[in-house]
Design goal:
The chain has 160 residues and is an alpha/beta fold. It contains seven helices and five strands; from the N terminus they run αβαβααβαβαβα. The protein is globular and about 40 Å long.
Length: 160
């Protein structure tokens, strides 16, 4: 279990009805601990319902399985680059017939971590949330960049 921190602030999250009204679709996201809280703030400013684990004291103290349970109970898709730990949890849920926590997987090669400039990551999440099919996306989905060709993204994702 990792120690995820000390501060709680969920005041930036929009109520689901407001997020739905502003973006057209209500999808709650939970950014895993490796993602900058600034991205959640920016996405909330754009009308989306997004929380960052790094901003939530009670979430930072949870193990990955516990975080999946919390996200599922709160109808949130986890955005993470931790494929190694979260993909098996998704498969376990599927094999046991239990409800699965939806994942939006990212790659540090496609979206290099930058707490000072999360722009490409934030823009890609905004585009994903605004896509007409966002609510019907697969339980395990990959976030792609919106600022360069898909063939380059496939190559980077395969190398992740």
């Amino acid at each position: 279990m990792s120690e995820r921190g000390k501060q709680t602030d969920d005041s930036r999250a929009l109520p689901p009805e407001r997020a739905k009204r502003r973006s057209g679709v209500s999808i709650g996201l939970l950014l895993d601990e490796m993602h900058a809280p600034m991205a959640a703030t920016e996405l909330c400013d754009r009308g989306h319902d997004v929380l960052a684990v790094a901003d939530q004291l009670e979430l930072r103290a949870l193990s990955d399985p516990e975080l999946c349970t919390w996200a599922r109970q709160h109808a949130r898709r986890i955005v993470t680059e931790n494929v190694k730990d979260f993909a098996p949890l998704l498969r376990q849920a599927d094999e046991s017939g239990q409800p699965a926590t939806p994942l939006l997987l990212t790659s540090s090669r496609t979206f290099p971590r930058s707490r000072r400039n999360p722009g490409p990551f934030t823009d890609a999440l905004d585009a994903w949330l605004r896509a007409p099919d966002a609510a019907e996306r697969p339980t395990e989905d990959w976030l792609v960049r919106t600022d360069y060709p898909a063939t380059q993204q496939t190559t980077q994702r395969e190398g992740a």
